[in-house]
Amino acid sequence: MSTQENITFEYKNDTITAHVSGDIDHHRAKALREAMDARLYADRPPLFLLNMSRVAFMDSSGLGLILGRFTLCRELSIEFRLTDPSPEVEKILDLAGTGRLIRIDRTKNSKSVKN
Amino acid sequence: MKRNKINEMKVIFDSKSENESLARYICAAFCATFDPTVEALADIKCTVSEAVTNCVVHAYRDTVGKIYMTLKAYDDATVTVSIRDRGCGIDDLSRAREPLFTTDAAGERSGMGFPIMESLSERFSVTSKPQRGTQVNMTFKLDKNSKR
């Protein structure tokens, strides 16, 4: 099981990348939201990447988390992109049609995350 | 064709958010007997997570109540999941089932819980009575022949 809090931030060339791993559900979303918002408010980078290649599970709480950061970034004039969603994430994005609203960068062939 | 029940499990747990993962892992373990595909298992876990989250966030909004989960396995490789609460109930079910409808936008709820449960399950039904509670029933087909 991978339900522990797991988010790391990477700073490079005016870009903050948040690497999220494990499960994203309602229980975990709050801590992830707070961690990301603290970084966004404090640093206001030109570009914020949310890397979801290591997310093993996501439900609609994850959608709320993604759309919430998208909205906050727009308010703070930060460009927001979702990168390399795992197949588990991709499926939920497809169901909700999230790709029509936000930019998703797929830089590699993502594989299912072992849970 | 008549199907026979081969296993059944009932779990009662508190409507605490940490039990969202507990419920979906219990369900995944229960389904393991059919050796389901990774994708089929992910679908079931997601729907269970949605249903239990609804109980935690909406049914027992400012309180902690009991969530009743019943799992049944049948010899035609189907599994039924029923998740029930004795919470506040849903006033307008058809509205609650609309994509993107939520009563809790401030909590960053996406309003996709019911639509996701409907799309990922083989069969889906929900009944609710205001002040009495809500019950969600879902059926999943875990046919080994569909294995990748």
Using a beta-carbon cutoff below 8 angstroms, give the protein chain pair with the largest interface and the number of residues from each chain: A-B, 25 and 28 residues
- Total domains of chain A, how many? 1
The percent of residues in helical segments of chain B reads 25-40%
Task: Give the spatial strand order of the biggest sheet of chain B.
Answer: 1-2-3-5-4
Give me the oligomer status: heterodimer
Low-confidence stretches of chain A: none
Secondary-structure element pattern of chain B, one letter each: EHHEEHHEE
Number of helices of chain A: 3
Largest sheet of chain B: 5 strands, antiparallel
Instruction: Using the alpha-carbon principal axes, give the shape of chain B.
Output: globular
**Major β-sheet of chain A, in short?**
5 strands, mixed
At CATH level 3, the topology of chain A is Transcription Regulator spoIIAA
Strand content of chain B: 25-35%
The overall strand count of chain B is 5
- Assign the CATH architecture of chain A: 2-Layer Sandwich
What form of chain A results from the Cα inertia axes? globular
Full CATH superfamily name of chain B = Histidine kinase-like ATPase, C-terminal domain
Explain the overall architecture.
The complex is a heterodimer of chains A (115) and B (148). Chain A is an alpha/beta fold. Chain A has a 5-stranded mixed β-sheet, with helices on both faces. Chain A has helices at residues 26-43, 60-75, 87-96, and strands at 7-12, 15-24, 47-58, 79-83, 103-105. The model of chain A has no long low-confidence stretch (mean pLDDT 90). Chain A has one domain (7-105): STAS domain (Transcription Regulator spoIIAA, 2-Layer Sandwich), CATH 3.30.750.24. Chain A is built from 3 helices and 5 strands; from the N terminus they run E-E-H-E-H-E-H-E. The mean pLDDT of chain B is 93. Chain B has a single domain, classed as Histidine kinase-like ATPase, C-terminal domain (Heat Shock Protein 90, 2-Layer Sandwich). Chain B has helices at residues 19-31, 38-59, 93-96, 113-120; strands at residues 5-14, 66-74, 78-85, 123-129, 133-141. Chain B is built from 4 helices and 5 strands. With 148 residues, chain B is an alpha+beta fold. In chain B, strand 4 (123-129) and strand 5 (133-141) form a beta hairpin. In chain B, strands 1-2-3-5-4 form a 5-stranded antiparallel β-sheet, with helices on one face. Classes of the chains: A alpha/beta (115), B alpha+beta (148). The interface between A and B is medium-sized, with 25 and 28 residues.
